[in-house]
């Protein structure tokens, strides 16, 4: 690239900024997916622990690092959020299975989003190289004109 076109430099910079924004959004989405996966895994672990706990007493977090010691009245049934703020009652074993399926789905989505981030990062790297070459060409052109 001997003569750098200012419009091409501007276009490349615009693409680079857009890719950066997309990467940031997808990274935030990955974080939310990971949080949901961890919460579902914790719920599965808790349900299993409640089933094994013979006295039915558990610690209930109430916020601010405070807990109440409470007795679970019906450890055999759980309310599970199935989306859109809709919850249904399920047997504990069914709830564990449902949450396990949700974890599997979240892992698949997480993998897909991570692949998209990787692809965008590769494209952003390529644009950065092209942009760097365009800037070098512009500097060389200026140096050549300054020496004339």
UniProtKB/TrEMBL annotation:
Gene name tied to this protein: pfdA
NCBIfam families named among the record's database cross-references: prefoldin subunit alpha
Alphabetized CDD domains for the sequence: Prefoldin_alpha_GimC (cd23160)
Cross-referenced HAMAP family: PfdA
Protein name: Prefoldin subunit alpha
Function: Molecular chaperone capable of stabilizing a range of proteins. Seems to fulfill an ATP-independent, HSP70-like function in archaeal de novo protein folding.
Coiled coil: 16-53
Family label: Belongs to the prefoldin alpha subunit family. Belongs to the prefoldin subunit alpha family.
Presence of keyword Chaperone: yes
Entry's localization field: Cytoplasm
Record InterPro entries: PFD_alpha_archaea, Prefoldin, Prefoldin_subunit_alpha
Subunit structure, as described in the record: Heterohexamer of two alpha and four beta subunits.
This protein's GO CC annotations: cytoplasm; prefoldin complex
Lineage: Archaea, Methanobacteriati, Methanobacteriota, Stenosarchaea group, Methanomicrobia
Origin: domain of life: Archaea
